[in-house]
């Protein structure tokens, strides 16, 4: 005789609240949220985790996670997380930032937090535009990509080249763990979850700054169906932003999960 | 015999984005065009037998709307010395 509980393969993580997200249908922000929630639950650290929400689509992240949260001014999440972590060093502090927040207005904060080797975890969502405000060009927009503020496609002569944040931060001494993953298919989602777990383990062990960059979709502002936007990630974003491990310090390589 | 599974899709969370439908290895999912959720989306459902409870739909679901179950065919009895 089996009980229904024994038949359970997968259910919504308990680290989520009951609030439905405000994200557009098919937006992989939700997948990233779910992976973070699953990792916090697996590590049994929801009681001592403090998240820092950004400005951007993920601005309401504090409504969805059943953990303590603070809301930072635009781009200042790493600075705020630094303060929280220094005052409460026994807590697990993570920031959840998009590319407009982290790579544009918050570039100074993220670089210096990484250079100081602050013991934080950063979840960086790269969807190649400013999603919340209507799909304007972001520092991560691909060359030739049409957005609402680069309507003929991003012209690199006048608008510059995309910034590869993981490659850039991996050159800094204070960074312990810096990888790029994608959320476009089940295999890569599982790899992303493992990377998020390693990033939180890095912080729990005090091994320095950890960041996971996740290639994400923005079906509404890209003007595609959710399924086609996953194809866009695979065909156009991954060649421009190669997946891989950009920096893993020797101590972190020893971590067995 | 292939494993037998089933899913429950929450009307509160499902937004009908179809990511689970394209990811399903058994191709047994579709949008239920005869129903609407309170938010006004057609929710996903399984329209025929064949679900194995692999949970790939739940892995790709951005809204954690899917609960996956699998029928237990054999019980692992603890080995006693």
Features:
heterodimer, A: about 260 residues, Rossmann fold, seven-stranded mixed sheet, about 20% strand, B: alpha+beta, Alpha-Beta Plaits, two-stranded antiparallel sheet, two-stranded antiparallel ribbon
Question: TL;DR?
Answer:
The complex is a heterodimer of chains A (257) and B (81). Chain A has 257 residues and is an alpha/beta fold.
Which percent band covers the strand fraction of chain A?
15-25%
User: How would you classify the helix and strand content of chain A by structural class?
Assistant: alpha/beta
In the predicted model, the low-confidence regions of chain B spanning at least 5 consecutive residues are none
Principal-axes geometry of chain B comes out as elongated
Task: Tell me what you see in this structure.
The complex is a heterodimer of chains A (about 260) and B (about 80). Chain A contains 11 helices and 10 strands. Chain A is globular. In chain A, strand 6 and strand 7 form a beta hairpin. With about 260 residues, chain A is α/β, with parallel strands linked by helices. In chain A, helix 2 packs across helix 8. Chain B starts with a strand and ends in an 11-residue tail after the last strand. In chain B, the strands form 2 sheets. Chain B has a two-stranded antiparallel sheet with strand order 1-4. Chain B has a two-stranded antiparallel ribbon with strand order 2-3. Chain B has about 80 residues and is α+β, with helices and mostly antiparallel strands. Chain B has one domain: Alpha-Beta Plaits (2-Layer Sandwich), CATH 3.30.70. Chain B is built from 2 helices and 4 strands, in the order βαββαβ. Chain B is elongated. Chains A and B meet through helix 1, strand 1, helix 2, helix 8 and helix 10 of A and helix 1, helix 2 and strand 4 of B. Strand 1 of chain A pairs antiparallel with strand 4 of chain B, so a sheet runs across the interface.
């Amino acid at each position: 005789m089996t009980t229904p509980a024994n038949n359970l393969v997968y259910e919504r993580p308990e680290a989520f609240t009951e609030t439905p997200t405000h994200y557009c249908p098919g937006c992989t922000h939700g997948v990233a949220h779910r992976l973070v929630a699953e990792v916090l639950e697996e590590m049994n650290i929801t009681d001592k985790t403090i998240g820092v929400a950004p400005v951007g689509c993920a601005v309401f992240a504090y409504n969805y996670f059943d953990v303590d949260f603070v809301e930072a001014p635009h781009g200042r999440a790493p600075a705020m997380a630094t303060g929280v972590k220094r005052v409460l060093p026994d807590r697990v502090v993570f920031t959840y930032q998009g590319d407009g927040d982290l790579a544009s207005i918050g570039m100074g904060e993220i670089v210096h937090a990484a250079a100081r080797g602050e013991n934080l975890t950063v979840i960086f969502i790269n969807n190649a535009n400013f999603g919340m405000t209507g799909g304007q060009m972001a520092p991560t927009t691909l060359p030739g990509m049409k957005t609402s503020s680069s309507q003929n496609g991003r012209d690199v002569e006048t608008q510059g080249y995309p910034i590869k944040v993981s490659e850039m931060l991996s050159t800094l001494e204070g960074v312990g763990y810096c990888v790029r993953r994608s959320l476009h298919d089940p295999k890569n989602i599982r790899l992303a979850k493992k990377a998020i777990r390693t990033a939180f383990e890095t912080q729990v062990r005090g091994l320095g700054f950890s960041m996971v960059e996740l290639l994400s979709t923005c079906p509404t502002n890209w003007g595609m169906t959710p399924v086609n936007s996953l194809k866009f990630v695979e065909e156009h974003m991954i060649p421009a932003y190669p997946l891989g491990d950009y920096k893993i310090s020797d101590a972190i390589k020893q971590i067995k999960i | 015999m292939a494993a037998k599974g089933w899913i429950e899709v929450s009307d509160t969370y499902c937004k009908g984005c179809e990511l689970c439908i394209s990811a399903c290895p058994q191709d047994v999912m579709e949008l239920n065009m005869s129903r609407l959720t309170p938010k006004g989306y057609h929710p996903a459902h399984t329209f025929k037998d064949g679900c194995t409870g692999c949970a790939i739909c739940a892995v790709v679901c951005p809204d954690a709307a899917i609960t996956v179950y699998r029928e237990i065919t054999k019980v692992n009895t603890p080995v006693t010395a």
